[in-house]
Specification:
It contains 6 helices and no strands. It is mainly alpha-helical and about 120 residues long. Keywords: Signal.
Length: about 120
């Protein structure tokens, strides 16, 4: 019984936390679905995480992920990174992230055209 109470308490805390922060991360439902259907499904989850790590951290990207990024397209790349960079916790450094986004795109295009 104690284990069940603990699990219910954890579930409640997680739901409360999610509800508190979802408005800050929400986009129009139709817009989010459109982005998902047209953009995110074009790249592997690993490459998506690598791209985010490059733009929002100091990681490097593999040539194969660069190829996926270029295939995804500039509009998708720009839009998805912009949505992430617009989050309240990141907005103060948005200019830096958008520059890194553009630098990554240019790097990946140069790799894709030489391969």
């Amino acid at each position: 019984m104690t284990k069940l109470k603990t699990q219910i308490t954890i579930l409640f805390v997680v739901l409360a936390f999610a509800c508190a922060f979802v408005p800050a991360f929400s986009v129009e439902e139709s817009e989010a679905k459109s982005l998902w259907d047209t953009c995110v499904v074009k790249i592997t989850p690993k490459c998506a995480l690598d791209i985010i790590a490059v733009v929002f951290g100091n990681a490097t990207i593999s040539d194969s992920c660069c190829h996926e990024l270029v295939q995804e397209g500039k509009v998708c790349h720009d839009t998805l990174i912009k949505y992430i960079a617009d989050r309240p916790t990141l907005i103060a450094q948005e200019t830096q992230y958008l520059k890194k986004r553009d630098d990554l795109w240019n790097h990946c295009v140069s790799i894709s055209t030489t391969a």
